[in-house]
User: Fold Acyl--CoA ligase from Spirosoma validum.
Amino acid sequence: MPAVDTFVARLRQRHEPLPAKIALIEGRRMVSYHQLWQQVDQYTARLTQHGIQPRQVVAVGSANCVELCAMVLALWQVRAVPFVINYKVEHLPQLDCIPVYLVNTKNTPPAIKSYVHSHYTSEDFDDTFELIRCCGPSTRKEMGDAALLVTSSGSKSQPKIVKLTESGLGQNVEGNVAALGLRSDDVTAMALPMGYSYGLVAQWLSHFYVGATVVLADARFFLAELPRLIERHRITTLFTVPPMIRQINYFADRGFFRLPAAHSLRFVTVGGNRLERSSLTKAMTVFGCPLVKTYGLAEAGPRVATNFVSEADDWMADSVGRPNQGVTIRVLDAKRQELPPFKPGIIHIVSGSVTAGYVNVRKPRYLIPGREVTTRDFGFVTDTGEVFILGRRNESIYLNKRRIWFQEIENLLYGEFSLLKLSLDRQQRRVRIRAVALAESQLCSQRIVDYLGTQLSVDGRKVFDVEMLRTNEFLSEK
Assistant:
């Protein structure tokens, strides 16, 4: 049994009064909290037999499933440091600092299997997992007081492996639970990968903390099956990212996504990036419940601000909300002095859930481990504490002597065209736009250039370079 002061012990203690409560649903399989902890104990004994040591990092390669959930909890019980890998797998060659892998033989992405089998030696673990150890010297990093490793989004550069502490993880989960008002009678449908901190911490662990039920859905068919899942399991909370919302809106417009008027949803969250007003307004009509805009980053734990939006036409709908409990958000100028309300500057986060550091990159200049992190986001805070994010400092361009933020351009394009995702980059005095159009769209790059030129009163050909992608190859980017 784990020490009573650990996060996993707190979870177990909170679940003891709920032995028959359904913890996980995967397809036709339902697992109670009692059954789950029995499996956790079996994994714990096997991990001990295989010599897994406290503070040792163990990467778990697996799609979302009951066994993955049990394995993460078991690794915590032996005081190891789990690192779930089912997201950003293309960056695996940079992970030679991980000495041990547990690979799910049934559902691990091929890229993970190929990597670990070419670099490590394997041994049997059980019917589900294969244990694979480094067969040579590894560049092992000091973990300090890390309890969990997560991967940052890496939207503009190399994804970073972030170390979260025991206390910081607990604080972030508690703050997220309080901000969202999660309850033990909640049921959430989960398609976000657990290798993504938004899915692992903000959805799975936050719901587990209150003894709720988590439905592990197949991400490949999630949107098509979602109305059925909501009705069958009485889903109350749904966690999404902007491309999912845009696809749902698209399906709804064509009659392929319909919810009954008396459905069970209490709210739908959206995180991972900014959601434009047009999609927010449409989604609130489709779901018939509040949308919750969340803000954060893996380095901060990950959730730091929350905005329940019940009226899309309210100007506050553009805010990411107020800081969660235990979090302070400040706005700094170039000299790192705090700015007054409504004055734009760099977003700075103060929280006990801030990362203890990184595994695969140097310590950045503006990080105080476990306390403070200066982000790359540019925004402002109102006099009542609401946080508005304008974008990254370089995500703007001056046109006709006016500063145009990229999010203004995105608002125009998402509001006019059927787009799944946009990516904008500034290249000197031009803006490069990569766009993925939704299915059946006949959109071409010249239409986008002409439209932006008209809306912004410029010669679009001199400002914008547009590339239409007929694939979702960059959907895993932030």
Remarks:
- The chain has twelve helices and 27 strands.
